[in-house]
Every structure is written in C-alpha cells, then in structure tokens.
Amino acid sequence: MATRYIDKVPGLASIVNRPDAAGIGMYNGGLYANLSGTPFLVAANPAGRIFYVDANSGVDTDDGRSWEGAYLTMSKALTSVASGDTVYFRGKVREQLVAPDQIFDVTIIGAGNRPRHADNAPANGELAANTWTTPASGATTTALLRVTQQGWRFVNILFAGPTDQACVELFRDAGAGDAERDASHAEFLNCRFDSGLNGISDIGGCYNVLVQDCIFRALTGTCILGVGNIGVGQLQWVIKDNYFTGFTNGVNIDGHRTLITRNYFTDGGTPNTTVVLDMANTATGTDNFIVGNFFQTSTANFNSPDIVGSATDVWAVNASIDSTAAGVGGNYEWGNPA
Predict the structure, then answer these.
(1) Residue 338: inside a domain
(2) pLDDT band at 322 (very low <50, low <70, confident <90, very high)
(3) How far is 44 from 24, CA to CA, in rounded Å?
C-alpha cells in the first residue's frame, strides 16, 4: 500500500469530508479529522517542545530538536512551533519575519551569557553568541519580527534592526474571533537593542507588556514607541531596570496605568527637541506611575518636550542633573512634569 502523508492545512475548512474515509489534516500543530462536515481535534501537539536554530551550520531539513539537528533559519523554526514552545538560537540570524498567526506564548532565547554580537572575528566568536539582524542583502522596510499573537517572550537577544523600521513590532487590530491579531502580554528580558530605527514599536495599543533589564543603544528613531490605536494605547505596561544610552528618542508612548521605574537615561539626541520620556504620545495618557528613574540629561527640567506626563500621573523620586531643576545636586524632583 502506498504511503500517505498528512498534509498541513491553512485552515480547518480545508479538511474536506470524504465519503469513503475521514478527511485528516494538521493545523496549528494539532491533528484534526472530518467525519461529518465539522472537523474535530484528534490529538493536540504537546506544549513545551524545544527547537534549536544554528545560523552557522544548521540544516532546515533536520528536525530542529537538538543543537546537532538544529535548523538553519528562524523562519523554519517559526513554521514548526506550536503554542507554548521554545526556540533557542545562536549565530547571526539575518531575517525579517512575521510570527505565525494563532500561535501563542512562544519563547525565543538567544545563546551566550550576555547579548553580544555573534561575529566570527576573533575566530569562533559566533559559535555561542547571538544576533538578530537584517539580511546581508535585500533588506525590506519591515521589522525584524512582527508579533501578532499574545504572550511571546524574548530573552537574551541582541537585536540590530533595520534603518527604517523597528527591531520588534507589536501588532494589534480589531479582528474578531480567530481573525483577532493581538501581541499583548509580550515580554522582553535582558535583550539589547543595538542599532536601527526603533527598538520596540507598538502600533496597535497592546496590553500588559513587560520590558525589563534591557539595553537600548544607538537607535536613530525611538527606543520604545507606542501610539494610541485600538483600545487606549499602552495599557498597564511595566518598563523597569533598563538602560537607555546614546539614543535619539527614549520612551515615547501613550501610557495608561503604566509603571516606569528604576530606569537610567543618558542624554537624548538634541536637548529640548527630542524625547527622553513622554507618556502622552498622540493622546493624553492617564494614571501612570513614574518613580525612581534617573536622568543624566542636562536640559531635561521635567518639562516638555524632553519629559512629558499628564495630570493624573504620579511622578516621584526621579532625579535629574539639570542645573535649573529642583533635582540639582542629586536632590529629587517631586510632582508632575510641567
């Protein structure tokens, strides 16, 4: 008898009801059968699998389940993952991708003890480190990765983004049911955003995003950019323990009930013309807590345009070295920005 393989299908409607047998297909990592016109789940893909990407020596026709059988490309890994899976990678990934729809809570972890460039000089420097950057040729005007579903986590990754887009773009729309695309509940932990236009860009108004222990450096646009769109903007984000240095614009979001704490900002691009921390991008922002941050910005007197808040924010125990600010000499400035 001839071997028959089970095909991956783009949607459950593609699994036809066969008059003489069950229609069977793989969708989003699950095995479905169609016996009576309504496909049903036969076996779910086990959550929590681990995949590996080695951009130096991987092979996309391997199974990706160990370093010895690692994939070569991140695109192959993202076509293989199901909700709850993890991807480890090393080497220099040169890809601009869109995360798969209806796949949730995927974790991507970069190899290496600290996020650093995966360069091959000195020799072997690329074998443990990681970089996610644009293709060597043929880069497009898209983010390195556009996230479209909830709960994606990024750990210990060095992003070197495109000159005209973000390293990571969080997308949210007004879709209903299975058509909803929403990158809320994302996490960025111990990552380094080292070049490009923007670091993290929220273009849909995502909810409950965590950015912690990251470095933002040498970005020509904005380190963290968010606008009011679907919903109310950046609702209940937590941005803490990050270091912003050598940037043009720092954090510029439409914050609502967002916590900004224990961050360190060096001077922005051009004092008094660029943003260091603005909580009211394209809207007013409401009920934010901005506490315990340090600003090495000699002209940021907690005033627009460098630092912007709203009347319902709580700004406390933030320090500036502005010679005209109340924070001169290391003293704290209390109250909302003017």
Answers:
(1) no
(2) low
(3) 13
